[in-house]
Write a structure and sequence with these properties.
Order of helices and strands: EHEEEHEHHHEEHEHHHHEEHEE
Mean pLDDT: 91
CATH architecture of the largest domain: 2-Layer Sandwich
Distance between the termini: 22 Å
Low-confidence stretches: none
Structural class: alpha+beta
Helix content: 25-40%
CATH topology of the largest domain: Ribosomal Protein S5, domain 2
Number of domains: 2
Oligomer: single chain
Strand content: 15-25%
Largest sheet: 8 strands, mixed
Number of helices: 11
């Protein structure tokens, strides 16, 4: 490995972000360990990006250009997962430790950015780690498949950096497309791709709006509240999680049978159910946006991610689409165009 470091190519990778359609939160331990989680999500045409190039010297540089953050670290000093850019440091440290050998720590410049704003609830942090891992896989020709990349990204984020959250985001970014995912004890994950006809995905796109409500500022706190609530099996929060898991099953059936109206109905019901899982999932701003959308003719809506902010998926029939858009324009958010994408994380040599 050492002899080839000077000839390392520059590489680029990108990982898609995802919309959590049903079951979100049931992929978070200890709920998934105790009861088994089920999630249905789909990746969209917003991506996180990673570019890695070789440097001379004994120092690596990490840059998150969308956050305007950068840091330089001696190549042998990557064990402490501290800010700034903790995820970048941790991904580099894991690759060096597990695949290159500690004595071989190449000097690299790692540059990242995302198409979505921070705190958007579409798995951007996890997709970023997946993109970084895949870029290292490309650069060093590591023998890692989709499951391996997703699991390694999960460990970097949840174990090495001790960041709260579930598992669905890493697997969505690695696999891409519409997926029904099952989560169990001992890190058991099964990804079941749903092979939908393109016209079905197009129909769903035509009846969904994606609106950024503002940054989610307390996603870790929301997740921690959900974790605490699962310790009481009789709590309303646990019963809500059971209902969310069941909604994922129902949405899978509706999608496979091409019943888009049922998909949108389940989406709206899931939001009502999800608010029972933790009080901070919604807030007055989100409720104000939701009320305006529903009054303007939306058929249902749901926050994607932990809640508290981020992207809101709004179901709107074509006749009501622009009524909803006009109703939300004064509220300070932003609409994003998107399409559903089938491809998971990709990487290539940069010329």
């Amino acid at each position: 490995m050492k002899d080839g470091l000077a000839q390392l190519p520059s590489v680029h990778s990108r990982a898609p972000l995802r919309l959590g359609l049903a079951g979100g939160g049931t992929d978070v331990a200890p709920y998934s360990d105790l009861y088994g989680g089920r999630v249905l999500n789909a990746t969209i045409s917003l991506f996180t990006h990673c570019h890695i190039e070789r440097l001379d010297g004994r120092e690596s540089q990490f840059l998150a250009t969308d956050f305007d953050q950068k840091t330089a670290v001696p190549c042998g000093d990557h064990e402490q997962m501290v800010e700034p850019l903790r995820l970048h440091r941790a991904a580099y440290a894991r690759i060096v430790r597990d695949y290159l050998g500690r004595a071989v720590a190449p000097a690299l410049r790692v540059t990242t950015y995302s198409d979505a704003p921070p705190g958007s609830g579409v798995g951007s942090s996890s997709a970023l780690v997946v993109a970084m891992v895949q870029a290292y896989v490309e650069m060093f020709q590591l023998p890692l498949g989709d499951y391996d990349v997703a699991h390694l990204a999960y460990e970097i984020e949840r174990l090495d950096c001790a960041l709260a959250g579930g598992k669905q985001d890493q697997y969505a970014a690695a696999f891409g497309g519409f997926n029904f995912m099952e989560f169990g004890a001992d890190d058991r994950v099964v990804v079941n791709p749903l092979r939908l006809k393109r016209e079905l995905a197009d129909d769903l796109e035509s009846r969904l709006l994606l609106y950024f409500t503002g940054r989610s500022r307390d996603s870790a706190g929301i997740i921690e509240a959900q974790v605490q609530s699962t310790r009481d099996p009789e709590s309303d929060a646990v019963q809500a999680m059971h209902a969310l898991r069941q909604a994922a099953d129902e949405m899978k059936e509706a999608l496979l049978k091409g019943r888009i109206s049922d998909v949108l109905r389940i989406l709206g019901q899931s939001w009502i159910t999800k608010k029972r899982a933790a009080s901070a999932i919604s807030n007055p701003r989100i409720e104000r946006i939701a009320d305006a959308a529903l009054t303007a003719g939306a058929g249902g809506l749901k926050i994607s991610g932990a809640g508290g902010g981020g992207f809101m998926m709004i179901a709107a029939e074509p006749a009501a689409r622009f009524d909803v858009i006009r109703a939300l324009e004064p509220l300070g958010g932003r609409f994003f165009s998107f399409t559903f994408v089938e491809q998971g994380v990709q990487s290539w040599k940069s010329h």
